[in-house]
Task: inverse folding
């Protein structure tokens, strides 16, 4: 029996609509956490189509405490006046709050090409990217990461050639930390360096 949103109506007799009301409560049982109740086909008219949307009121943060610490939760909250979706999950250190919709797009409406940026992943991993103008010197060029969401640890980094001006070179990471990355462009001849823009992408948390 599908969910009925017009039960009961004013002229309905309880004896005739009681089954429909009970059916509605059973369908909505999955929202209340009743085990074994699958309401995705019942609430939406199209079988198996699931929910049309889920509205989460901003500001209803999950309760703190040990009872909640072992459970997962999805909620909406404001970060720097921008509404974001959060997931409450547990890692090895305990419960963490991850704003998994937060990214550079939360603060920049239309980021320019090559603008350094960052984004959360639902797991809590953070990805940062940008471009470095590397000079033709042994010291290379350094780019500082966007400090809006700082890294605690970095895991890996990749490089991609930018504007090389036709010169052959090999981009290498000479230094990597939680706040910056330094890249050297080595030329084909020993001891030579090439000035070129280099794209980088770093993941961490």
Result:
């Amino acid at each position: 029996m599908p969910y009925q949103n017009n039960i009961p109506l004013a002229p309905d007799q309880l004896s005739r609509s009681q089954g429909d009301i009970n059916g509605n409560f059973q369908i909505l049982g999955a929202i209340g956490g009743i085990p074994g109740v699958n309401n995705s086909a019942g609430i939406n008219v199209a079988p198996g189509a699931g929910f049309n949307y889920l509205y989460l009121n901003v500001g209803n943060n999950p309760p703190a405490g040990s009872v909640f610490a072992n459970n997962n939760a999805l909620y909406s909250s404001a970060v720097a006046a921008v509404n974001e979706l959060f997931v409450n999950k547990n890692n090895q250190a305990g419960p963490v709050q991850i704003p998994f919709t937060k990214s550079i797009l939360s603060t920049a409406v239309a980021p320019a090409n090559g603008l350094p940026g960052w984004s959360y992943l639902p797991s809590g991993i953070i990805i940062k990217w940008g471009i470095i103008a590397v000079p033709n010197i042994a010291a290379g060029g350094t780019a500082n990461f966007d400090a809006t969401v700082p890294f605690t640890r970095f895991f890996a980094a990749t490089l991609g050639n930018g504007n090389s001006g036709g010169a052959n070179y090999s981009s290498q990471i000479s230094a990597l930390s939680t706040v910056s990355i330094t890249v050297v462009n080595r030329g084909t001849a020993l001891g030579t360096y090439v000035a070129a823009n280099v794209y980088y992408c770093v993941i961490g948390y």
Q: What stands out?
A: The chain has three domains: 1-49, 66-102, 109-204.
